[in-house]
Design a protein that fits this description.
The strands form 7 sheets. This protein has an 8-stranded parallel barrel, surrounded by 7 helices. It starts with 9 loop residues before the first strand and ends with a helix. It folds into 3 domains: 338 residues, Alpha-Beta Barrel (TIM Barrel); 137 residues, NAD(P)-binding Rossmann-like Domain (Rossmann fold), CATH 3.40.50; 160 residues, FAD/NAD(P)-binding domain (3-Layer(bba) Sandwich). α13 runs parallel beside α22. Helices cover 31% and strands 17% of the residues. β4, α2 and β5 form a beta-alpha-beta unit. The radius of gyration is 27 Å and the shape is globular. The protein is built from 22 helices and 27 strands. With 677 residues, the protein is an alpha/beta fold.
Length: 677
């Protein structure tokens, strides 16, 4: 077997876990919706059918004061048990074990009833928490125990106590958020007492056969957090209190250090779980930025952990485990850690999903139904929308021909994959190409279609994508001006000083591409480079694992001078993802990129780019000017003749409209159309 360690069963007390794959906890926002638990049951059930060994649910609060936001799910009474039984029944029929995560938000609750060890407001919440009295602390512990009892009644095999990421238990542990002077504060032994008591009492109440996992913060990434010696002290105490497994938590939500986005090197934090595993006797789960079976298997072989937790990879592909088990990892739709449809959706109170798999969390709303009549489908354009539509249509039973005018499939995906920190997009390209081949889809490269050819099919889909929009600026045809496509595909050679017109997502990508060219010459390991840049102490000898950022001035001086420009008076990248925009801005700041806003473009000439900022003229003496000011649709030259065809013609992706085009919209439209064909 290719992934021998990954698929070795594990005996946990009287429970056998069929493999070492854990589907980690994710909040989906489904719990609070009408028929939300039915949708959750279908979501988890499909992953269980895909042979994952253990599922840990999204966080469920043990009481109303512990919720993350108004109307979030609570399990504190018998009335909630039946809903959760829908989930456990859907999962257990496939032989998968499932644990419910108990999460108390503490001061992270986005609601006025929040409580905490001390009345210290979190930077990510508008409310100041009420400091718990000793009597109220005892109530919180009792509520954890009660919630665990109800979870057992609902059919869960166990619970995970959420003790990391800056939630209530973590707030007790760390002196930055625990200023108490009683038996629940002060010394480290007092500060960890809350966590120990919860575990001890849950174990006493539920017995030895009930799985008890504790999610332990291995590095807080906040000032005055725990050192690793303290983490180990807590781990040993948790062993003594009765935990069956220790899961790895990385970073607090308020930390200004990225931990799960695509620019974070794969398995960056696994060395911490390796140290934990060497020090404890209970099995250890490692997590964060693990998205392929190859990486997972290597971590197990290198004794970094006993189990591998992957959360969002199961949004991207519910059959991840089943495909890996039969050595078919090329067919896995890999998570690219973009945050775009999962975390970004959650933060605007929408259900989570996935940009590379629009069915995620929508299984009951978007079933794949075989076509009654198999049709001959022609798809023009081999970018993301065209490839996705071809795949979804073929899965329904249609015969598909995909026409691409160039010598390479991918379109804008190819450009995105060339951006430093976005290399994971290559996985999406690999998946699409592999899936096209496995479905026997006819792919015709370097072909210019015509109306006569398309008329022979039952349905025609135009997915010809977009190209860069050229703004009306005096001198815009000067030789120093180049479009973003030519930069990202390597056609244009860029050196010296650069002005980028447009500070949206494409502008940020181009700035990263230009500044990243020299950084890629750095021969140090990627983990070390990233840790230095973001001030991460992976030894965690410094409290919280935070050190001063190491982007030295000399390194910045070696980079080309880059100006990122926009007309509007607002922060650059305002339309970037809510959970990732700050990371992109901070990264470019590290690279010395100068961001200018509220300006107008006067002209381009031999001197460079002439701009006006608040009615004051200024010259940017640059060598190159790159246009990133938007996109426009690309349509085939015969598109007006398509109306004369007697067969249906549909448009998707950039061909439909270039406005606000992204991968999520392209793939989503492809899926929706394919289900109607």
């Amino acid at each position: 077997m290719l992934y021998r360690r990954l698929f070795t069963p594990f005996q946990l007390g009287s429970t056998t876990l069929k493999n070492r794959v854990v589907m980690g906890s994710m909040h989906t926002n489904l719990e609070e919706l009408p028929q939300g638990f039915e949708r959750l049951a279908a979501f988890y059930g499909e992953r269980a059918k895909g042979q994952v060994g253990l599922i840990i649910t999204g966080g469920i609060s043990p009481n109303p004061e512990g919720i993350l936001a108004p109307n979030r799910s609570v399990l504190d009474s018998q009335s909630g048990v039946a809903q959760h039984q829908l989930i456990t029944e859907a999962v257990k029929q496939h032989g998968t074990k499932i644990c419910m995560q108990i999460l108390h938000a503490g001061r992270y609750g986005y609601q006025p009833q929040q409580v905490a060890p001390s009345a210290i407001q979190a930077p990510i919440s508008p409310y100041t928490p009420k400091e718990l009295t000793t009597t109220e602390i005892e109530k919180q512990i009792t509520d954890f125990v009660n919630c665990a009892k109800l979870a057992k009644q609902a059919g869960y095999d166990g619970v995970e106590i959420m003790g990391s990421e800056g939630y209530l238990i973590n707030q007790f542990i760390v002196k930055a958020t625990n200023k108490r002077t009683d038996e629940w504060g002060g010394s480290y032994q007092n500060r960890i007492r809350f966590a120990i008591e919860i575990v001890k009492r849950v174990r006493e109440a539920l017995g030895a056969e009930f799985i008890l996992i504790f999610r332990l913060s291995l590095v807080d990434l906040v000032t005055d957090g725990s050192t690793f010696d303290e983490v180990l002290e807590l781990a040993h105490a948790l062993e003594g209190a009765g935990v069956d497994m220790l899961n790895s938590g990385i970073g607090w939500h308020e930390s200004r250090i990225p931990t799960i986005v695509t620019s974070v090197p794969r398995a960056l934090f696994s060395s911490l779980s390796q140290r934990l595993k060497a020090a404890v006797s209970v099995p250890v789960i490692t997590s964060n930025r693990i998205n392929t079976p190859e990486v997972a298997e290597q971590l197990l072989q290198d004794e970094h952990a006993d189990f591998i937790s992957m959360a969002r990879p199961f949004l991207a592909d519910s059959q991840f485990v089943a495909k890996a088990k039969v050595n078919n990892s090329e067919q896995i739709n890999t998570c690219i850690a973009c945050n775009q449809a999962c975390l970004d959706n959650i933060f605007v109170n929408l259900p989570a999903s996935c940009i590379v798999n629009p069915r995620a969390c929508n299984e009951t709303l978007m079933p794949i139904i075989k076509a009654v009549l198999s049709k001959q489908i022609a798809i023009v354009g081999g970018g993301a929308a065209g490839m996705a539509c071809a795949i979804y249509a073929a899965e329904r039973g249609h015969q598909v021909s995909l026409f691409e005018s160039s010598s390479e499939l991918g379109g804008q995906l190819i450009l995105a994959a060339n951006v430093p920190g976005k290399e994971e997009f290559k996985e999406t390209l690999r998946y699409f190409k592999s899936r096209l081949m496995s479905l026997n889809i006819e792919v015709k490269m370097n072909v210019q279609t015509d109306v006569a050819t398309l008329s022979q099919y039952d349905h025609c889909v135009i997915a010809t994508g977009v190209k860069g929009y050229t703004p009306s600026i005096v001198g815009v045809n000067h030789p120093c001006v180049v479009g973003y496509q030519a930069v990202l595909d390597g056609t244009a050679s860029i050196d010296g000083r650069v002005a980028i017109i447009g500070a949206g997502g494409i502008g940020f990508d181009v700035a990263s591409y230009i500044t990243g060219a020299k950084l890629q010459k750095n021969t140090q390991p990627a983990d070390l480079v990233f840790s230095k840049q973001w001030g991460i102490d992976l030894t965690v000898t410094s409290p919280g694992g935070v050190i001063s950022k190491q982007m030295k001035k000399s390194a910045v001086d070696e980079l080309p001078q880059v100006y990122l420009l926009q007309r509007k008076l607002r922060k650059h990248g305002a339309d970037l993802g809510k959970t990732t925009g700050w990371i992109h801005r901070e990264h470019l700041k590290h690279q010395g990129v100068k961001m200018l806003a509220a300006l107008s473009y006067e002209k381009i000439d031999e001197q460079g780019l002439h701009i006006s900022v608040r009615n004051r003229e200024r010259l940017l003496a640059v060598d190159h000017i790159i246009i990133c000011s938007g996109q426009e649709s690309v349509l085939p030259p015969y598109h007006k003749l398509l109306d004369e065809l007697t067969i249906p013609v549909s448009y998707i992706g950039g061909a439909l409209t270039a406005e606000k085009l992204d991968l999520q919209r392209a793939i989503g439209e492809a899926f929706n159309l394919a289900q109607r064909l």
